[in-house]
Design goal:
- Keywords: Membrane, Transmembrane, Transmembrane helix.
- This is FecR family protein.
- By secondary structure, the protein is α+β, with helices and mostly antiparallel strands.
- Among the domains are: about 140 residues, Jelly Rolls, CATH 2.60.120.1440; about 70 residues, Phage tail protein beta-alpha-beta fold, CATH 3.55.50.
- Helix content is about 30%, strand content about 35%.
- The strands form three sheets. Strands 1, 2, 3, 4, 5, 6, 7, 8, 9, 10, 11, 12 and 13 form a 13-stranded mixed beta sheet that branches. Strands 15-18-17 form a three-stranded mixed beta sheet, with helices on one face. A two-stranded antiparallel ribbon has the order 14-16.
- It is flat, with a radius of gyration of 22 Å.
- The relative contact order is 0.07.
Length: about 325
């Protein structure tokens, strides 16, 4: 543990010197030589440092606190690697907590920057966790993107979001507003909820675990309380309360997919995002086959095997390309 804290300080020292390759650091060199995974992590640190270089002028940095954060989330990552499938919040320990290493903490930055931007993505095949500068935590599902900004002049916490995420928003008098590309806005003060807002989906779905949120689209508003679920139709620009099992909406946090009469086309879209594959589906099958039940995320072939046993389909896997046809 102490060694990791020390390495963390050496990494920050190296990066703060603008990555001058002529500077020799025996401790850092030894750590890099120990394991290839250390080299991969270091590359990620450098990439994130470059992307956020405009905030490197912050004077206050608590290396021990920041590295504690990295150590904690990396332990979570290592635990998930021991499971059957190497999926989970792999990138979170590197990317999200390095924001803290860079000084995106609750103190200092807000006072010095009139506006601050933080961006995080979860590519297809991965999931991420990001700790925002205000202390809010967002877990991103595959194929999601979030940009956070705090504007001291306007006194607002604002997020541009697409994809799916579970938000645990820190309580604060300053409003927390999520904007989506269809003009829909979600206003929060401090709460936990799941939000599904993929750009290629016909609807936006919100499921509130605790607290209170407000969906806003033009003159149409919908106030939600704990336990409520709501859906926004992009074609009609209308929102309405909906029913269902609340926990099913965020079961992806436990690597599960609950299918409540889910069409095969929707299942395939989920699998494409989750496993970074391309599925070629026979045209007449997409909406003619529906599934009910729960699938524990394992390998893509395991899931396809389950689906083929539940319905009259066959599949063929060639690398990242999958064909699904009727038997």
């Amino acid at each position: 543990m102490e060694k990791k804290k020390q390495i963390g300080e050496h990494i920050v020292d190296h990066l703060s010197e603008r990555m001058n390759e002529e500077i020799v650091d025996p401790v850092l060199d030894e750590w890099l030589a120990e394991d290839e995974s250390n080299q991969e992590d270091f590359k990620r640190y450098k990439e994130i440092w470059k992307e956020t270089g405009s905030y490197l002028e912050q004077e206050t940095f608590n290396a021990q606190y920041a590295w504690d954060k990295i150590d904690r989330i990396n332990k979570e990552r290592d635990n998930k690697r021991k499971r059957l499938v190497n999926i989970g919040y792999i990138i979170s320990g590197v990317a999200a907590t390095l924001l803290l290493v860079l000084g995106f903490s609750k103190m200092g930055v807000f006072d010095k920057q009139p506006e601050m931007l933080v961006r995080m993505t979860a590519d297809y095949g991965s999931r991420s966790e990001v700790v925002l500068p205000d202390g809010s935590v967002v877990k991103l599902n595959s194929g999601s993107d979030i940009t956070y900004s705090y504007n001291a002049k306007e006194n607002i916490r604002e997020v541009n979001f697409q994809g799916e995420g579970f938000f645990d928003v820190s309580k604060n008098k300053i409003p927390f507003v999520i904007k989506m590309n269809n003009g829909l806005r979600l206003k929060v003060h401090g709460t936990s909820f799941n939000l599904q807002a993929y750009t290629d989906e016909k609807t936006v779905e919100a499921s509130l675990v605790e607290g209170c949120i407000e969906l806003d689209h033009g003159n149409d508003k919908l106030l939600m309380n704990a336990g409520d679920m709501a859906i926004f139709d992009k074609q009609t620009n209308k929102m309405r309360p909906t029913s269902g099992v609340l926990s099913h909406s965020y079961s992806w946090l436990e690597d599960k997919l609950y299918m409540d009469h889910m069409p095969l086309a929707s299942v395939c879209k989920y699998l494409e995002r989750r496993y970074d594959v391309t599925i070629h589906l026979q045209k007449d099958l997409g909406n003619s086959i529906h599934y009910d039940g729960v699938i524990q995320e394992e390998t893509i072939t395991d899931i396809l095997g389950v689906l083929s046993r539940l319905s009259d389909i066959s599949y063929n896997v060639k690398g990242k390309n999958i064909s699904i046809t009727s038997k």
